[in-house]
Design goal:
This protein is mainly alpha-helical and about 150 residues long. It folds into two domains: about 1-55; about 75-153, F1F0 ATP synthase subunit C (F1FO ATP Synthase, Up-down Bundle). The protein is about 85% helix and about 0% strand. The protein contains five helices and no strands. Keywords: Membrane, Transmembrane, Transmembrane helix. It is a multi-pass membrane protein. One of its GO terms (molecular function) is proton transmembrane transporter activity. This is ATP synthase F(0) sector subunit c. It holds the Pfam family ATP-synt_C.
Length: about 150
């Protein structure tokens, strides 16, 4: 088992405890709580960037290379175009992340407007949900693009 996977639950528990502590601190002193939450966000961003850098510098897996059998042939064929496949995977991740963020912003605006309109006229529920569903379709487009990119990698 990789040390990354073994330490992941501990990191998750630590982040949750820090977030709960920052929220409790925010109830007492709002300015200090906001500073604590910003510090926690900076810590999480630094960890994510370190993980991203480690993923970019990782070597491909080479299990079974020494036996000269089918496994070594498959690994050699898989790592032959690793530069382009790595770029395609990063492009797929960017497509999913960008479309998900865009869909979240669109759903936030259309959902709040739909709820405001439904509070005045409840009979427009169906039309309002169609608009919110169209906004969620943006994320599906990003997912389709990522599937196409992964398929070509």
């Amino acid at each position: 088992m990789s040390p990354w996977f073994a330490g992941l639950p501990l990191v998750l528990i630590l982040v949750v405890l820090l977030a709960v502590g920052a929220l409790a601190l925010m109830r007492r002193n709002r300015r200090t709580g906001i500073k604590a939450l910003l510090g926690l966000n900076a810590l999480l961003m630094a960890g994510a960037l370190a993980l991203f850098a480690a993923a970019l510098n990782a070597a491909p897996a080479t299990a079974g290379v020494g036996d000269g059998g089918a496994a070594s042939t498959a690994v050699a064929m898989a790592t032959e175009g690793s530069d382009s496949s790595g770029a395609a995977l990063i492009g797929a991740a960017i497509a999913v992340a960008g479309s998900s963020i865009g869909a979240a912003i669109a759903v936030a605006y259309t959902g709040s407007a739909a709820l405001a309109a439904m509070s005045e006229r409840p009979e427009i529920f169906g039309r309002a949900m169609v608009v919110v569903g169209l906004a969620e379709g943006i994320a599906i487009y990003g997912l389709i693009i990522s599937i196409i990119l992964i398929g070509q990698a």
